Amino acid sequence: MQDTPSASELAGFFDGLADTAGRIALTHFRSSGGFERKEDLTPVTIADRAIEVELRRLIGARFPKHGILGEEAEPTVGDRYTWYLDPIDGTKSFISGMPLFGTLVALADEREETVVAGMIDMPALAERWYGTPRGTTFNGRPVRVSRTAKLEDAQIYTSSPDFFTPQDWARYDALSRKAMFRRFGGDCYQYGLLASGHCDLVVETSLKSFDFMALIPVIEGAGGIIRDWEGQPLTPSSDGRVVAAANESLLRQALAVLKQQD
Questions:
Q1: Distance CA 220, CA 137 (A)
Q2: Which of 37, 42, 64, 87 sits at a 20 to 30 Å CA gap from 3?
Q3: What average pLDDT does the chain have?
Q4: What would the DSSP string read from start to end of 91-133?
Q5: Among residues 37, 34, 189, which one has the least CA distance to residue 98?
Q6: Does residue 1 have a pLDDT over 60?
Q7: Edge-to-edge strand ranges of the sheet holding 181-184
Q8: Is the pTM value of this prediction over 0.90?
Q9: What is the mean pLDDT of residues 157-167?
Q10: C-alpha distances out from residue 125 to 91, 102, 161, 163, Å
């Protein structure tokens, strides 16, 4: 495969990465294996590390000139392309036996400042979203975001209040209470639900680049929009505050409320 892969080759390679990550994750899921705490006190499992090691090996063998930035190991620098890896997004769900954990993979073209492709794979649910600028699929079939245009009609998600500072929580709380209803939990899964039209807004903080780079093409390929809390496009150096919306109208309404509370 060339350093710049074709669309079909890339989709097949992403599927292979997801299949590999899923096999490893499900081998350890709901097992007696323990976990450790990293320096920032967040948990990490054997599965997290084993998945990233194997994905790095596969990417390095196929694309030796590409860089890799993952959650569990030091980054490597490439000449144009960078892979972003979160081997298990939702580690706390994984540890506690809840199937709402996933693997996130993205490929970014640093020269063009674009994300070429992104994937949300939920191995315990056998559900997979794959997004590119040409569109997003769910288990191989095209999906689109909802048509909800008013904040009062919107279903809004976030993973947990624990991820917010008190100031940011006040802003989210004010926003979410204007929606039709709000739900908690899901980590990367909630973005897949948005891409498939099952919810309308996802608002979060404290995300790292390997948490959100894969989400960009999944959301935008399905017709949605994803930005930071200032309304700016996400980049690897964004501050981790994210708003994903089914359309620009919802995004503007959400940002207006967040700004009022600033």
A1: 12
A2: 87
A3: 93
A4: HHHHHTT-S--EEEEEEEETTTTEEEEEEEEETTTTEEEEEET
A5: 189
A6: no
A7: 181-184, 155-158, 201-204, 242-245, 225-228
A8: yes
A9: 95
A10: 15, 9, 25, 25
The SS3 of residue 141 is strand
Give tens-digit pLDDT for 84-125.
999 999 988 998 899 999 999 999 999 999 999 999 999 999
With a cut of 80, say whether residue 40 has pLDDT above it: no
Tokens for 97?
Answer: 């036996």
Q: Strands, DSSP E only, in the chain?
A: 35-37, 43-45, 67-70, 81-89, 102-109, 114-122, 127-132, 135-138, 141-142, 155-158, 181-184, 201-204, 225-228, 242-245
Choice among 38-47, 205-214, 234-243 with the minimum mean pLDDT: 38-47
Cα separation of 74 and 214, whole Å?
19
Are 100 and 157 a contacting pair, CB within 8 Å? no
Cα three-residue angle 159-35-211, rounded to 5 degrees? 35
Q: The tokens 């569990």 sit on which residue?
A: 72
